[in-house]
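Much of what follows relies on a compact textual record of a protein's fold. With that in mind, consider the following protein and its fold in token form.
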Amino acid sequence: MYNYLVNFLLLLGFGIFFYSRIGMDWKLYILIAAALGHLTVFFIKLKKSQKHTD
């Protein structure tokens, strides 16, 4: 489950690196969308795991 959070942080780091190198580009929009997708999946899985522990 935490691999989604790690992937989000990695994609965020790559996004910041590419933004500092080339500015806003179409590749950066793909990285942002992928990072937000990973973060969303992480929170969904976290919420499901908290339901099962109650």
User: Anything to note?
Assistant: The two ends are 18 Å apart (CA to CA).
